[in-house]
């Protein structure tokens, strides 16, 4: 799939936050995709229509960008262009959770890429984002991901020590989360738009596409962390690894644990 | 204190400019703090209430973010959460100086972290930002810092070749300014939010907290500059040093010159 | 000229997109210039008036920043301050092309710094941005650049494998485009503001100034690519090279192919 991204260089319309926009654009370029990052509502429909996937991220959402996300998302739906939503900090404010609900209500989102706390907020569950025991929380998150995927009719892809991907029927776990991934900002945001790039070139089996992206990304993180134990180096190493990893290396390296609910 | 930041991982609500937001977020993560960077006025009060400190920066201020800063600052005041203001370029426009005056008038700011030109603008003094002689200017800046701290009832922390920190009564000087610190954008902005992170975990003696942060930061800059004489490398090295410096090293390395006004 | 930038440290008012603003600010600092990046319309005229050049970039344009660009541009015109326009993605939406036309109609832009697709959009020509054969397209782009420069009465500077600079009468070609330059976001945007910095210190012969900047930039790219084959490293190496290259090295290294139309 990553070979196809390099060959087709899909245009990814990202409406994203200003904290990670540079890293996200460089990450997409590193894998061979092509980012467009306009966020004015006046051009949202046109940019979505030009693109092969739309990647929405609410990290520094405001009223204008929410409007643009709704327009871009609806245009993408009309044209059959995949839409990925990254509900950054969904639970931190009424504004965010209502925005996420509005987007999910008015746009057919293909993949909801989030962390455990964001998933819990979207599902309306209580969640303590601090001091969470990963082992204990895992089962709940799996169930929550499955029920959310079923209820909303989309793929839910939750990152953590073990990533969980589900379409509401089957569940894949990818146990390669690297703690360095959370040492810099934007690895989750970039992952969401790499998922969008994957869907842009590979639509037959979205669940498998998301799994492949997550495996790839886990290896990128692992490799980057080997040569870069500090956050300045890690950001650089991460982009380098994104630019150099090939499909074959991914296939050789990863075995996926899959199970049925 | 930095050990405490790593342990408590305080949430810092930053309303900041888009030029430095990535660097600022990564810098906060590097020391173990946790940045939230929403800037919509709809969520400003909630984000402030969730946080352990609020860090305001007017580098790319506009009407909406000013509104959010006022809301976040006032909510922080109600809840006893410390507020740091970085009045970037306070003197460059009427819009900025009026915004700074409005924030200072309506929010109890705990620390004003600025440079000499910004301090002069806030104090209503003439200041030539180009060709300033550091030695000659120093006394004036010290006096200005003291009178501003007294007048506004807050800590004033001015960076330069020698940093000056004052509560209007005592003055600390930290003579470790490194010229490489001004070779990249955002070191001052990040410092302001590291001050916020310090205040988030250590509230007993704010003056000492700010001093400790400034000493720490000076050593980070000095160390980073040793292995990185060019600006690309320096940005990376700076984040690396932020991530690796410990309290003990700071204590061992720095002696502070302190004097009474 | 770059020696002069280091000595005079011209203030460059950049109204630019949030994807590249950090890279653009650090790049300007690396060459010794001083960026100001406010984008509120309330301060646009004052910031332009303080500056030695104005650099406009529509990469994440919205209604507010367009308003600011018009105000800053007109103020710069009144005061004889040079204005550079980077019409990022001019052809991707009605909003962008209309904004570009409005800016070009109401502001005397000194240099239009763009790529082939953006030039074609501004000239109202069809252009396929994908699969373009550089050799074949070259002649057309040269003609288009010349006719656009004539029609609009400004310098057109088009980057590509071979860069083209024209005032509508003579044409310079700089054949040093490095493919790594497009592997990261923002090299074009930064180039536009480096052109602004060049014009800020050297106004006698704008065409030669732009050529000198382009040659310098091409060497920066070539040098950076030698030690950095992956995009993470390249971004760092590029800033390092910007900070270290001297005028003398540029003069020694480059011969310019020039021809008359």
TrEMBL record, chains A, B, C:
UniProt entry keywords in alphabetical sequence: ATP-binding, Kinase, Magnesium, Metal-binding, Nucleotide-binding, Thiamine biosynthesis, Transferase
CDD domains recorded: THZ_kinase
UniProt pathway annotation: Cofactor biosynthesis; thiamine diphosphate biosynthesis; 4-methyl-5-(2-phosphoethyl)-thiazole from 5-(2-hydroxyethyl)-4-methylthiazole: step 1/1
UniProt record, GO biological process: thiamine biosynthetic process; thiamine diphosphate biosynthetic process
Superkingdom per UniProt: Bacteria
EC number annotated for this UniProt entry: 2.7.1.50
Catalyses which reaction(s): 5-(2-hydroxyethyl)-4-methylthiazole + ATP = 4-methyl-5-(2-phosphooxyethyl)-thiazole + ADP + H(+)
Binding site for ATP: 113, 159
Molecular function (Gene Ontology), one example: magnesium ion binding
Needed cofactors: Mg(2+)
Pfam families the UniProt entry points to: HK (PF02110)
Gene3D superfamilies in alphabetical order: 3.40.1190.20
Ranges annotated as spanning the membrane: none
InterPro entries: Hyethyz_kinase, Ribokinase-like
Family stated for the protein in its record: Belongs to the Thz kinase family.
NCBIfam families per record: PRK09355.1, thiM
Primary role: Catalyzes the phosphorylation of the hydroxyl group of 4-methyl-5-beta-hydroxyethylthiazole (THZ).
Name of the protein in question: Hydroxyethylthiazole kinase
UniProt organism field: Planococcus versutus
